[in-house]
Amino acid sequence: MKKSILKKYAHLIACVGARVQKGQEVFISAELDQPEFVRMVAEECYRAGASKVTVDWHDQALDRLHIRHRSLKTLSTVPSYELERWKYQAEVLPCKIYLISDDPDGLAGVNIKKMTLSQQAKMKIIKPIRDQMEDKYQWCIAAVPGVAWAKKVFPHLSKSRAVEALWEAILTASRVTDDPVAAWDRHNADLKARCDYLNGLGIKELHYTAKNGTDFRVRLMDESIFEAGGEYTLGGNFFNPNIPSEEVFTSPKRGEAEGIVYSSRPLSYNGKLIDNFSIRFEDGRAVEVHAETGEDLLKEMIAMDEGASYLGECALVPYTSPIRESGILFYNTLFDENAACHLALGRGFGTCIRDFTKYTQDEMREMGLNDSVIHEDFMIGTPDLSITATTRDGKEIAIFRDGEWAF
Amino acid sequence: MKKSILKKYAHLIACVGARVQKGQEVFISAELDQPEFVRMVAEECYRAGASKVTVDWHDQALDRLHIRHRSLKTLSTVPSYELERWKYQAEVLPCKIYLISDDPDGLAGVNIKKMTLSQQAKMKIIKPIRDQMEDKYQWCIAAVPGVAWAKKVFPHLSKSRAVEALWEAILTASRVTDDPVAAWDRHNADLKARCDYLNGLGIKELHYTAKNGTDFRVRLMDESIFEAGGEYTLGGNFFNPNIPSEEVFTSPKRGEAEGIVYSSRPLSYNGKLIDNFSIRFEDGRAVEVHAETGEDLLKEMIAMDEGASYLGECALVPYTSPIRESGILFYNTLFDENAACHLALGRGFGTCIRDFTKYTQDEMREMGLNDSVIHEDFMIGTPDLSITATTRDGKEIAIFRDGEWAF
Fold first, then answer.
1. Which of B309, B342, B335, B289 is nearest to B104 (CA)?
2. Is B119 exposed, middle or buried (0-12, 13-18, 19+ CB in 10 A)?
3. Strand locations in A196-339, DSSP E?
4. CB-side exposure of A123: number of CA atoms within 13 Å?
5. Which of A178, A402, B100, B127 sits 20 to 30 Å CA-CA off B87?
6. Does A182 touch chain B (CB under 8 A)?
7. Cβ <8 Å between B61 and A35
8. CB B329 within 8 Å of CB B315
9. How far is it, in rounded angstroms, from Cα A398 to Cα A407?
10. What is the Cα–Cα distance from A106 to A44, expressed in whole angstroms?
11. A89: helix, coil or strand?
């Protein structure tokens, strides 16, 4: 991929994604796949005025080794210095940039039970500290191609061509045009207009139906608002947490969802696939799941903690989304979630509560915002999906018809 | 390079180099050049019973960015979590493995003054903690080829062939034969016999002369002993800190060196070369230096702290050492120091004091063991080098004649 294009993408991530402020610290998390691009992002952060950029290199292959060879006890331990690092971040409120490139099958063969148990144990220790920085710092997830990921998406191409093709697909989906900053300004404005319309309706309930059997109702909180594209930190810094981002989303009210939904795309969870599955909700809780592939994994996922079986997100994406129209299945939520309407199990978003800055985390949970260590999107959008809203004053309004916006 | 050979090398590093003990933690430090080999070493550590292996990935190119863009103040700061990590290591006493592959020219163009000042400031904070673990843990430095390093050593080869050629050179120098463990057992036994002879002589002073003008006398401490190959931690774990290692070395008495030495090979310091230099000593201190290349750098090096201008090591390597005979200039001290007799400015080795376990760090400094944040080897071995020892009972004994062992 041409260096000049990659520089634009690096700039987009630093200045539109994380929107690094002068004097701010930045932590970049990256796999080993694209070190040159990681350095470009670091340089763009410095150009934007970052006081210090720290890169945390990760290696999925090493993670596999650790899970195989370490005891559950050492895997579950958070050493003092790691805890101190979280505390430091909660105090300093750095930008966090995640450059993902994981192999979708990267954890195949791993003892998922052992991994899950150790993650639960560690999150229990880390989460209270991480919660202190919630909504206070800018962050951005963007993608770079890894060889294994590229070969999964383009199995018929050679390694180097597959990586090049995945670069192409990532850059197109991420609107890395001649002037990506302007493109994102326009895109954010479009998404905002849609949110404003939806937030003016006073929606109480969404009713999803599709020919595959989906028939599902979910209540929103009185305070639920739809969000899309960029968002603000409590301190007032605008940033774009996801590159790309096509969805218009909100967080529903915990405990008020009924009916069944059928998946329309596979879900890649911890490097393994869950496919052709359904989830039945009662009183907001996933009470029955079936899956042709990965049923046990799905069951483990919703048992991660209490909130893992409740919904944290309802996201609206038209079936004609450019990412779906590309025809590419990315095997990666950052992209695939922007190809179709989806729901998420697990943690809800504080920013989806009107005037969320007024409330504490506890108050938001009280209102019905779900909490969990997980937040896992799964796709339910089909070409025939209908969504009808019931407003608080009793009107029925078409939101989606035949998989498209109905307004 | 064939995977089966690399596995033997990885095993050598884990089990002969660091000699990982059952239940021990291991920290591996590596550049991004050879991730597959790094994983092999991690796996061999686990096979040896490591309870946890942590890999710290470094990137020299990012270091350059940091030095360019960060203020001296942020560069000089050790964040709380990094300090906590040193304290953790001082408590846990893990094995530390350093897989080096740095580009010898990797810091060209860097503001050396800024880098040096920030290193001094950080070392001041870290050193007291690092000192607590001195001589208590196993560590091993070994090399893997990076592209830039390989191209420096083999400029006429293509990148991939240069890397292959450097692998070959590293593996040969490191005695990675059919059975590297047995080869190292034999090698350690040979080196030990030489040390035993030297340590039986009761050497008081070494006198170096060569036709290039070198005429230099250095006193040893009464307690100085020659060491080579493997050594023991205070807890009794045998390990090989350097792979390869051909030298027989001791630490001299601080403050008692007179005369002038001329370099016989370039010194690569912080990624830059110092070449064709001489150092004149008075009362043990480097009082006058000249260099055709890098004189300023050499002056900065010996000004790092007070101990940086005193000697920490005298090492004996015959001119027919296999590493010199390979004819390859590695531009890397780990190899080049095993090609010729050398001295080191800076920190001396506690293990070069007889029964060092009986003494505290302070007591050893009292005896004349030098201390510094640096330890920089420089080569003085030539084909005509003579070294004559004067023993404590007044005898003169030939140690080296014409660049070779004289016994």
1. B335
2. middle
3. 203-209, 215-220, 227-228, 231-232, 238-239, 248-250, 252-262, 267-269, 272-282, 285-293, 311-316
4. 12
5. B100
6. no
7. yes
8. no
9. 8
10. 30
11. helix
Task: State pLDDT tens for residues A313-347.
Answer: 999 999 888 898 898 989 888 998 899 999 999 99
SS3 at position A64: helix
The reply to whether B61 touches chain A by the CB within 8 Å rule is yes
| Residue B269: predicted pLDDT | 84
Report phi then psi at B150, rounded to 5.
-60, -40
| Whole-angstrom distance, CA of residue B324 vs CA of residue B326 | 5
Judged by CB atoms within 8 Å, which residues 66-105 of B form the interface with A? Answer: 66, 68-71, 74, 79-82, 84-85, 87-88
Task: Tell me the per-residue pLDDT of A137-165, one tens digit each, with 9 for 90 and over.
Answer: 999 999 999 999 999 999 999 999 999 99
Instruction: With beta carbons under 8 A apart, name residues in chain A contacting B99.
Output: none
Smallest Cβ–Cβ distance between B70 and the set A39, A52, A74 belongs to A52
Q: How many CA atoms lie within 13 A of A400 on its CB side?
A: 26
Q: Omega before B383 cis (within 30°)?
A: no
Residue A33 identity: D
The mean per-residue pLDDT over the stretch A47-66 comes to 97
- Contact between chains at B65 and A43 (C-beta distance less than 8 A): yes
The 8 Å CB, 24+ separation contacts for A166-171 are A167/A1, A168/A1, A169/A326, A169/A328, A169/A330, A170/A143, A170/A144, A170/A145, A170/A335, A171/A1, A171/A5, A171/A9
Q: Is A121 exposed, middle or buried (0-12, 13-18, 19+ CB in 10 A)?
A: middle
DSSP for A12-42 reads: HIIIIIS-PPTT-EEEEEEESS-HHHHHHHH
| CA–CA gap between residue B225 and residue B388 (Å, rounded) | 17
Is any Cβ of chain B less than 8 angstroms from the Cβ of A62?
Answer: yes
Residues in Cβ contact with B57 at an 8 Å cutoff, skipping those fewer than 6 apart: A32, A57, A59, B30, B31, B32
- Cα separation of A210 and A311, whole Å? 19
Q: How confident is the model at residue A361 (pLDDT cuts 50, 70, 90)?
A: confident
List CB contacts (< 8 A) between B38 and chain A.
Answer: 62
Model-level pTM? 0.87
Q: What is the largest CA-CA distance in chain B?
A: 59
Amino acid identity of B310? Y
pLDDT for position A270: 75
DSSP B110: S
Write the DSSP string, B202-260: -EEEEEEE-TTS-EEEEEEPTTB--EES-EE-TT--EE-SBSS---EEE-EEEEEEEEE
Peptide linkage before B244 cis (omega within 30 of 0): yes
**B393, HSE (Cβ side, Cα atoms, 13 Å):** 3
- For chain B, residues with pLDDT lower than 50 are none
Per-residue CA distances from A367 to A139, A305, A392 (Å): 25, 20, 17
The torsion of the CA quartet B99, B101, B105, B107, rounded to 10 degrees, works out to -40
Closest-CA distance of chain A to residue B194, Å: 41
Q: What is the pLDDT of residue A331?
A: 87
pLDDT at A273: 85
> A188: buried, middle or exposed (CB in 10 Å: 19+, 13-18, 0-12)?
middle
